[in-house]
Write a structure and sequence with these properties.
heterodimer; A: alpha/beta; Fumarate Reductase Iron-sulfur Protein, Chain B, domain 2; Rossmann fold; 4-stranded parallel sheet; 10% strand; B: 459 residues; Uridine Diphospho-n-acetylenolpyruvylglucosamine Reductase, domain 3; Alpha-Beta Plaits; 7-stranded antiparallel sheet
Chain lengths: 429, 459
């Protein structure tokens, strides 16, 4: 679409949202990136001013604006703390698709999103093959965390400590499920998400164990696709739409009360971003999205709010667990008490809170690959806050946060396990 | 900016601390005032005080206009740069150099965030009272340059009451020292006083020495509801007349009350014409005694309901409503113009009356809240700057608000500064001679006119 007039027109459609920013600058207090760089273009106010400047032709450099707009974790801290209620996340996601539409998608991203991610079966196969060979290029470094590092991959991944692809992904062991509601009288659709499928299948298994324990029926169809956020955050609307449609199709066939995921980012994407980005889709698809998004719940919130769990007293000598609040759970969905209740169901654990538990871990999906230095600085603060609690385990309801936190702890040589709250609960069953 | 000069700046502060791309410079073209953006030529972020001095000198040597910027929260355009000028960021100069618990002072760099400083001071069992609305992000350098106020102004004063000294760079990058770490100091001209509220037009701050106090031991908050604005204003006057100085004495008009209630569902009475939020603090005995007296005064002067906070949670609830005021108003319409014309507190009823007249005359929505105890009201105009016709009415209304405030013996700005937005009204409040005197002063100190030109006294 390399057409300036079209770019201006599309940006102009954001105007009603852009204009609601009163430039008070309060987002500076909470933006993790601004906290590291102190640069105005890194904070929401600066990005919004740039988009407005571009729309009004006061700024002539779309590439420069795109570069600034993508320096963002999409953590939503700004939106959650905005006095005038600017929907910064909505603005930034839409702006990314508009700017990518104008600038074009990089070849690498085309190959990843259009060549692999949008083809779930191929994607699974490719990663399955990669999983067989990854051991040749990596060396385990931390047995508590389960992380490895790789000299061979250093040019791409830097000095990251990796969580490897699981030997057996969840979909290989449990290709699909369709069990009736048990004693709870409830049935859920289960969307593990890419990371809980391929890197942390233990999280997926834990969820299934807990659901079974409480007599919850599970519908887990084959052919689930990625929730779409990696494509959308790169501005690839085409791949995003494909992924959303693939998921609509597989879930349309099931009968269930709720759709649960163990991934904060998948939950907030499906619940909030799918409806927000639905305007280009057909009426029927919009209706399906609306109906489905109303059913989507974080799995922690589901087991606490719908199954009515209340945490028992922790046992004598329980081990200490600290909790990281994923941005996409607390700031986006307002879920922060439930993960704590879930892990406290295991009486062998007691919570010790860290400082700034809801500060972003610095992952931000592909942000951590593109801006590794800033991401690691933000992550290091999280690591320091975790380590300061003296806890043996850090729990968080988002596999993406688990990846980043594992990396950060492992790099510092900490012997602190990283777990999903559902895993901790499942261990006690 | 020519390449040689760009290299000079890069040599001084490092390449990574010089920004010249369009996307970077444009993001320093504005502050929180509703004014047009002006794009600087260069943005420089010194990481040491020595670098800061050298940058100032380099700008002066090349006659480049300087606008020093902390967090850019200014509401009068004080941090909007000159076209093609240099923006100097202070946010890398954010060290608290010293907190002296024995002598009750602190020395800070200009880029320290107000709320972080206040928290650090509180952790040592001391108190830094100035609490401007933007304190979560504002810098102490910006607070001093604007003489920022806040909710506690009535009892505790404003930023100027806590500035013991300012060391600053003159245009040649030489350090000028003023003030002292001592309570008393009459050494030399009161240059620190001159720096406070100078909006970056007379020097560039290097370090600031601030006064600290012991914190009050107890506090009590209450909310009084009135069916008449006049009764609320009379209550304010009666509290002061009873020789009680509350730490905070805040006011909200009916429009603000309704908007806050819509937004926060705090249980505010939407039919109330006015609401006072009052907090007394000090020794527990004094607090109990004063709270009782304040309650009696509110009752006597016709408050229809009084709610005394019984504990910290209830106290917090009272203040939540006040804190939500600007947020709630800001959500009503795209553009929020927050004014701060201030009148002697006895003139609040007259000011409120005039404001409602102005709102209907110009067919505008104005919500008013603010610091009733010190006469510093915030009439907040809710508009859409894209609507040109309405925007003209807004400008006319602002003119008239200032006219009225000055007519009542008030001032153009209680705490937001003059900057670009109000410099045209300066002569009305002061005199031609005042402007000329100030300009001569500036000319002598800054012959090339590089220090934040155009602010306060025009050019």
């Amino acid at each position: 679409m390399a057409d300036m007039q079209k770019l201006l027109k599309l940006l102009g459609e954001l105007d009603d949202q852009l204009v609601s920013c009163m430039r008070c600058g309060m987002c500076q207090a909470v933006c993790p990136i601004y906290g590291q760089t102190g640069r105005e273009a890194d904070v929401a106010r600066g990005k919004i001013a740039l988009l407005e400047g571009l729309a009004k032709e006061l700024v002539k450099d779309p590439a420069g604006v795109q570069d600034k707009v993508t320096r963002c974790l999409l953590c939503g801290s700004c939106a959650a703390n905005c006095p005038s209620g600017v929907k910064a996340l909505d603005i930034f996601l839409k702006a990314r698709t508009i700017l990518t539409g104008y600038m074009g998608l990089s070849k690498v991203k085309q190959a990843i999103f259009r060549g692999m991610l949008t083809k779930p079966k191929l994607f699974n196969k490719l990663l399955g093959v990669a999983g067989m060979f990854q051991g040749l290029f990596t060396t385990p470094v931390n047995d508590i965390i389960g992380s490895s590092c790789s000299k061979f991959l250093a040019p791409v991944l830097g000095d990251r400590h990796l969580m490897l692809l699981a030997k057996t992904p969840l979909h290989s062991e449990v290709p699909s499920l369709d069990t009736p509601a048990g004693k709870s009288g409830l049935k859920v659709a289960f969307f593990p998400g890419c990371l809980a499928d391929k890197i942390f299948p233990r999280v997926g298994h834990a969820v299934l164990k807990v659901l079974k324990h409480h007599g919850v029926g599970v519908y887990m169809p084959e052919g689930q696709a990625c929730c779409g956020i990696p494509a959308l955050s790169s501005g690839d609307r085409e791949s995003y739409d494909k992924l959303v449609r693939a998921n609509l199709e597989v879930f349309a066939k099931g009968n269930f009360d709720y759709l649960v995921t163990p991934c904060a980012t998948c939950t907030s994407t499906m619940k909030k971003i799918w409806p927000m980005m639905a305007e280009g889709m057909s009426k029927a698809e919009q209706e399906t999205i609306k109906a489905l998004s109303a059913k989507i719940m974080d799995v922690n919130a589901f087991v606490v709010d719908k199954l009515g769990l209340t945490a028992p007293q922790a046992a004598e000598g329980a081990q200490t667990v600290t909790v990281h609040d994923p941005c996409h759970l607390k700031k986006s969905l307002g879920v922060s008490a439930q993960p704590r209740t879930v892990l406290s169901m295991n009486t062998g654990c007691k919570i010790v809170e860290m400082n700034a538990s809801d500060a972003c871990c610095g992952c931000g999906g592909s942000f951590t690959l593109q801006h590794a230095d800033i991401s690691a600085k933000i992550g290091k603060q999280k690591r320091d806050n975790i380590a300061a609690t003296g806890a043996k385990v850090v729990a968080t309801g988002c596999p993406a946060c688990m990846l980043q936190i594992s990396d950060m702890l492992s790099r510092s040589g900490d012997r602190i396990a990283v777990k999903h709250p559902m895993e901790i609960y499942a261990e006690s069953l | 900016m020519n390449d040689a000069l760009l290299k000079d700046f890069q040599a001084l502060v490092g390449k990574e601390n010089v920004m010249e791309s369009e996307a970077d410079t444009f993001s320093y073209a504005y502050d929180a005032a509703v004014l047009d953006p002006v794009v600087p030529g260069l943005v420089v972020r010194p990481t040491t005080r020595e670098e800061l001095g050298k940058v100032v000198k380099l700008c002066n040597d090349n006659a480049l206009p300087i606008t020093v910027r902390g967090s850019g929260t200014n509401l009068s355009g004080g941090t909007i740069p000159s076209k093609g000028g240099v923006v100097i960021l202070t946010n890398a100069l954010n060290k608290i150099i010293e907190i002296n618990e024995a002598d009750l002072y602190a020395v800070v760099e200009p880029g320290v965030i107000t709320a972080k400083f206040a928290a650090e001071v509180a952790a040592r069992g001391l108190f830094y009272p100035p609490d401007p609305g933007s304190q979560a992000v504002s810098t102490l350098g910006g607070n001093v340059a604007e003489n920022a106020g806040g909710l506690r102004g009535l009892k505790y004063g404003v930023t100027k009451d806590y500035v013991m000294g300012v060391n600053f760079f003159d245009v040649d990058g030489e350090i000028v020292k003023s003030g002292s770490r001592t309570v008393k100091c009459v050494t030399g001209l009161n240059l620190a006083g001159l720096m406070v509220g100078s909006e970056g037009t007379l020097g560039v701050f290097e370090t600031i020495t601030l006064k600290l106090t012991p914190p009050p031991l107890a506090a009590k908050a209450l909310m009084a509801i009135f069916d008449d604005v006049n009764k609320a204003s009379e209550t304010v006057a009666a509290i002061i007349a009873a020789k009680i100085v509350p730490a905070t004495l805040e006011f909200m008009d009916n429009f603000t009350i309704r908007t806050v209630e819509d937004f926060a569902h705090a249980g505010l009475p939407v039919d109330a014409q006015a609401l006072l939020l009052i907090e007394v603090d000090g020794h527990p005995g004094q607090v109990a005694d004063e709270a009782e007296k304040v309650e009696a005064i509110c009752k006597k002067l016709g408050a229809t309901r009084i709610q005394v906070a019984k504990d910290a949670a209830e106290r917090n609830k009272v203040w939540e409503a006040r804190r939500a005021a600007l947020s709630a108003l800001a959500r009503v319409s795209p553009t929020t113009v927050l004014e701060d014309a201030t009148v002697p507190r006895s003139k609040i009823p007259a000011m409120m009356h005039a404001l409602s007249g102005i709102a209907s005359k110009y067919k505008l929505t104005i919500g008013t809240f603010g610091h009733a105890g010190d006469g510093n009201l915030h009439p907040t105009i809710l508009t859409d700057r894209r609507n040109t016709e309405e925007w003209h009415r807004v400008e006319a209304a602002i003119d008239e608000i200032f006219e009225v405030a000055l007519g009542l013996g008030g001032t153009l700005s209680g705490e937001h500064g003059i900057g670009l937005a109000k410099s045209k009204y300066m002569e009305k409040e002061t005199s031609r001679a005042t402007i000329l005197y100030s300009r001569r002063l500036k000319k002598a100190l800054d012959p090339k006119g590089i220090l934040n030109p155009g602010k306060i006294i025009g050019e």
